[in-house]
Design a protein that fits this description.
The chain has a single domain, classed as Sugar-phosphate isomerase, RpiB/LacA/LacB (Ribose 5-phosphate Isomerase B, Chain: A, 3-Layer(aba) Sandwich), CATH 3.40.1400.10. The termini are far apart. It is 47% helix and 18% strand. It has 148 residues and is an alpha/beta fold. The protein has 6 helices and 5 strands. It has a 5-stranded parallel beta sheet, sandwiched between helices. It is globular.
Length: 148
């Protein structure tokens, strides 16, 4: 069973739990917190998830906060992470196919988007295309990270 590292802040907690419940029969979730709706700082959980994904071969990450924006920014500060904010299944699919994203971030509180469970499901079911042009671009992204 594929290992998925998941985490959220307080604003994403309920959605994180829903994702685990609805997709738990297909994936092994490793929950990095938080464990309730008491206010916490999203960068702490984004970093935990990103660091775990970075050192766990063949894993992927899922992050949820109120908007998904904060956790995606924080996760992208960890070496080797390509976190994509996805408000639609199409964006989740393209993040995997074109960018080889290894973490998806989505919203726990936004109302104008596709269902977050479906976004995560699409992300986890989509493979990197491996097309030369996409591989070349991902390599360039990693070079930017390496030199900065």
């Amino acid at each position: 069973m594929k290992k998925i590292i998941i985490g959220s802040d307080h604003a994403g907690y309920a959605m994180k739990e829903r994702i685990k419940k609805e997709l738990g029969d297909k994936y092994q979730f490793v929950d990095m917190g938080t464990d309730g709706e008491k206010s916490v700082d999203y960068p702490d959980y984004a970093e935990k998830v990103a660091k775990k994904v970075a050192v766990t071969p063949d894993s992927q990450g899922v992050l949820v906060c109120g908007s998904g924006i904060g956790v995606s920014i924080a996760a992208n500060k960890v070496h080797g992470i390509r976190a994509a904010l996805a408000y639609s299944k199409k964006a989740a699919m393209l993040a995997r196919q074109h960018n080889d994203a290894n973490v998806v971030a989505t919203a726990g509180r936004e109302g104008t988007m596709d269902d977050p469970v479906e976004i995560v499901k699409t992300f986890l079911e989509t493979d990197f295309s491996g097309d030369e042009r996409h591989a070349r671009r991902v390599k360039k992204i990693m070079e930017i990270e390496k030199h900065n």
